[in-house]
Every structure is written in C-alpha cells, then in structure tokens.
Write a structure and sequence with these properties.
heterodimer; A: 227 residues; alpha/beta; Rossmann fold; 2 domains; 6-stranded mixed beta sheet; B: 302 residues; alpha+beta; Alpha-Beta Plaits; 12 helices; elongated; binds adenosine-5'-diphosphate; binds magnesium ion
C-alpha cells in the first residue's frame, strides 16, 4: 500500500537529518509499529507519509502513485482515506468535541444523519460522551488525545497513522485504544503506529520497525521492543 | 453541494459567534472605512454644490444698447447657448430690469421720483452668461467682441471680473484635485489597514487551517466559513455605519445648511440613498469576503 524509496529528510537550517535513506514497504492490512528514541524520526516519517512535509530526496508511493506528483484534488482524496492521530492532537479550537470529530465525516461528505449516529457512538467508545460540548481548551491531555483518536477512526479510513497515540493515556485507556486498533485492523484497515512505549509494542505483537537517528536499523515480524 | 453550502454557512455563523472578540476588530476597521468612503461621498456632493452656486455667481453680464432689438438679442442668445462650455444664458429684458430696480429701491423716494421724471426706461436689456471654466469665459468674451456683436453691445463686465474668475476657477480646480488625491490616499490607507486586520485575525487561526487541510478538507470547506464570517462582519459594519450616517447627517444638517448657504446633508442623503447604501453595504460585504478569502489563501497550501 505504501512504499518509501530511499527517503531522506533534512531539516533546514539546522541540517538535521531526520530520515536517513529509509526504505520501507507496508502492505494493505498490515499493522506496523515504528519504535525509536525521542528524536529518532518517527514523527517525521508519519508527516512525510501524509504529505505534511516533503522528503528532501527519495519518493513515497501510495498504491503505486508517487505522492510528490499528485495534484491538489488527489491530495485531498488521499488524505480523506487516512485517519491521522497527531502527536500534538491538532484539534480545532473553534470547534467543540462533537464538531471536531464530526469534521472528519463532513470532509468525506457524510450525511447529517450518519454524523448524528456515528459521532456519539465513537465518542462513547473513547469515553467522552459527557464532554461532547466541551472545547479542546477545556480538556486534559488524555481527553484531547481521545478526541484525536475518535476523529481518526470515525470515517473508517483505509490507513491510520498514529503518532504516539497513547502517550497521555492511563494504562486502562491504553489497552482500550489498542484493542480498538486491533479490531479495525482485523477489519482490513492498515495501521502505522509510532511509539516509544515498550508495553505497547509487546501488547500488539506485530511487525516492529526500529528507527535510530533517522535510519531503519531493524524490521522484524512479531518484534520485541529493543532500543 | 447543498449540504456543503449549508455546512459552510452554519460553520461560518457558529465560528463567528464564538470569535466575537477577534471579529470585532474587523468590524471596527470596516465601519471606519465605510464611514470614510461615505464621508468622501458627502464631501464630493457638498463641493459640487458649492462649486455650482459659485459658478452661478460669477459670469459675464452683457448690457445692450437701447437700439438693440429683442430679435437681435435673442439671436445672439441662441448663438451663445449652442456653444460648448456654456452652462446658462439668462435674458433680462429692460422691463424686467426696471421692475427689479424699482423693487430694490421701493423705499427710496428720490430714486423713484427721478425715474418718473425721466419717464422713459433708462435701463438696458442684458444677458447673463454662465460658463464652465475661465477658458470658456475667454472664448465667450472674444466672441462678443466680434464686430457684428460689438455693435449692439453697450458694455460688458468681463474686463472687471476676468481676474476674479480666473483665480476662483484655479482655486476650485486645485481644491477638487487635492480633495481627490487625499481621498484616494486615505482610501488606500484604510483599505490596507482593513486587510492587515483581517490577515492578522486569520493568521491566529493558521494552525486550525492547516489541520483542516491535513484531514482532507477541500479549499472551499476551509475558505467558505471565513467568507461567511466576512459577510457577517461586513453587514454589521454596514449597519453601524448606516445608523451613524443617519444620526450625524440628521443632527448636523442645520449648521451645514447655514455654513454652505443651502446644502442639506439630509436631503443629499435621502436623494442619494441608493448610492450610499451601495457604498456601505457592498463596500462592507465586498471587503469582508474578498479580504477573508485572500487572507486564508496563503495558509491553504498544506
Ligand atoms: N520542524 C523541524 N525543524 C527542524 N528540526 C526538526 C523539526 N522537526 C523535527 N526536527 C528534528 O528532527 C529530528 C527527528 O524528529 P522527530 O521526527 O520529531 O522525532 P521523533 O518523533 O522520533 O521524536 C529531531 O532531531 C528533531 O529535533
Ligand atoms: Mg514524535
């Protein structure tokens, strides 16, 4: 589904090489965990995949199409097939919890009827049914993270990009969220999840790719967390 | 499409009501701008009024010899009227002149007695000519000085007024030119201020815009609600400006009438209502929409 070919990202002006000739193939339906120390390049990798940033060199293919070559309309379509959980949540501050989650459905053109049916049930699933009218500023870090998760799942994307999605959650919530991920993965959704949490890796027991200074140093099926 | 439009409008309205603080800055500068343009419009109307009333006061008066016939004068008048640059040619017959004279001196026994003694009407028929510019006056004077015209003319007061006419026309031309330049300059300044304000308020939302694009929103989904907010800001600004205009014109009309010798702000306002509404409403909404769309544009490339 996604292939990275020799992808390098150098940030300017610091000249930090956040991705160092990364080669990676993720097949449809796979669940891939990206691990690595803080600063290893996990977030950069995720940003490159949803085209928030452009690689300095190398190319990224989505279903065979070079992301560097797609036009504006294709980019919108591409992003609508992805659900991204940003490390910094990226909620819309002028919208309340319900509206933030509903936005992902509005973007894909869902009907009001579907929105009014699905949003409450997903918010219920992530334990936020009492906060639907609250604004992001009124939420704790963990609650914001759960809104971000709900927004990424709500429109049943083909690919989920999750950047440290459990960083601010308590142990019980982590388990709930991981179970949800496993369930949607079972239904066919491809997932790429970045984490530095050992327990998460060991719980998921899926393919693990280890980044170090921007380079892939290990790529194991049913991998363990090794730093 | 209908759903999208509905959502854009709804989002625009809710976001507007949640961001009143941010939007009030925009409303404020929009109101000020609209008022400035309205003010320029009023000043233009007033200066035209003053210009016209002054134009009517200056002019060439031509007094005819007693032997000049009404036909000759009338022919000359026709001739003058057909010339370019002539605003008005008024004929005052000697009888009318006498009436006027008597009226002006109705309390002056001596003058009236003298008139009676003379018996005949000593006054001359005249033409009062109003033209557009001092150049036109010059042409008129030259035309009247031609032999066949000069024959029937007793006297002409052009020589006397030439200097004054020249000076006054030069002044009004200059005033109009400076007024236009100043208006353009301030217009430009306020428009830049409005745009900066809008851009600043949208700048504070750049991250939100980025997020919308990252979850796959089309440009219209992002831009639309901002444009709706622009419409709301513009409409509110127009309403405030309209109310302020009504109140100020209403209350300042008496003093302005006195100062200008007859220019009524309120009459001008009501008789130009459509133009003023167009300036205020279209100006406000137009700036609201266009500036918002322009300001969002640079953040859409995510
Ligand atoms: N916008 C940026 N500008 C400059 N350097 C950056 C930027 N974002 C990340 N970096 C640097 O790139 C490296 C990788 O960062 P990141 O991808 O965020 O790592 P991780 O998510 O694994 O912690 C780090 O050294 C970080 O300091
Ligand atoms: Mg990171």
């Amino acid at each position: 589904m996604i292939s990275l070919k020799d992808v390098t990202k150098i940030y300017h002006p610091s000249k930090i090489m956040a991705l160092d000739h990364v080669n990676l193939d993720v097949a449809k339906g796979e669940f891939v965990v990206i691990v690595g120390r803080s600063g290893a390049g996990k977030t950069t990798l995720i940003k490159a995949i949803n085209k928030e940033i452009e690689p300095t060199s190398g190319e990224i293919l989505f279903e065979g199409n070079n992301l560097a070559a797609i036009n504006h309309a294709e980019l919108n379509c591409f992003r609508r097939r992805i659900g991204t959980i940003f490390q910094d949540y990226r909620l819309i501050h002028t919208k309340n919890v319900f509206e933030n989650v509903a936005y992902a459905m509005e973007v894909v053109g869902a009907s009001d009827q579907d929105i009014n049916r699905d949003v409450p049930s997903v918010l219920n699933m992530v334990g936020l049914k009492d906060k639907t009218r609250n604004f992001p500023q009124e939420l704790s870090g963990g609650e914001k993270q759960r809104v971000a998760i709900a927004r990424a799942l709500i429109h049943r994307p083909d690919l989920i990009l999750a950047d440290e999605p459990t960083a601010n959650l308590d142990v019980y919530s982590i388990q709930d969220v991981l179970e949800s991920f496993l369930k949607v993965n079972e239904m066919g959704t491809t997932i790429i999840l970045a984490t530095h949490n050992q327990n998460v890796v060991n719980y998921l027991k899926t393919r693990v790719i280890t980044l170090e200074n921007g380079a892939v140093v290990r790529d194991q099926q049913k991998g363990k967390f090794i730093l | 499409m209908a759903t999208l439009t509905k959502r854009i409008i709804k989002t625009g309205i809710t976001t507007f009501s949640r961001q009143l603080g941010l939007n009030s800055a925009t409303i404020f500068v929009l109101t000020a701008t609209i008022l400035l343009f309205t003010f320029i419009f009023f000043v233009d109307g007033m200066s035209n009024f003053l210009f016209n009333s002054f134009q009517e006061k200056v002019g060439i008066s031509v007094y005819f010899k007693q032997e000049a016939t009404a036909e000759e004068i009338s022919a000359l008048r026709e001739n003058l009227v057909s010339k370019p640059g002539i605003v008005k040619v008024t004929y005052v017959s000697k009888e009318e002149a006498l009436e006027k004279f008597k009226e002006n001196h109705q309390n002056d026994e001596v003058v009236l007695k003298t008139l009676e003694i003379v018996g005949d009407n000593p006054l001359a028929s005249s033409l009062k000519i109003t033209a557009n510019s001092d150049n036109d006056y010059k042409n008129v004077a030259a035309f009247l000085a031609q032999e066949e015209n000069a024959q029937i003319i007793e006297k002409m007061n052009y020589q006397k007024t030439e200097e004054i006419i020249k000076k006054l026309f030069a002044i009004t031309r200059e005033v109009k030119r400076i007024g236009l330049l100043l208006g353009l300059f301030f217009g430009l300044v306020v428009v830049v201020i409005v745009f900066s304000t809008v851009r600043l308020s949208i700048h504070t939302l750049r991250e939100e815009i980025g997020v919308m694009k990252l979850v796959g929103a089309s440009n219209w989904m992002v831009r639309g609600p901002f444009m709706v907010q622009g419409i709301l800001c513009g409409s509110i600004a127009a309403i405030i400006a309209l109310i302020l205009t009504i109140v100020t014109t209403y209350f300042s009309t008496p003093s302005v009438v006195t100062i200008t010798g007859g220019f009524s702000l309120f009459t001008y306002f009501t008789s130009n209502l459509l133009a003023i509404l167009a300036i205020q409403v279209l100006g406000g909404i137009g700036m609201g929409i266009i500036f918002n769309a322009l300001a969002v544009k640079r953040y859409l490339k995510v």
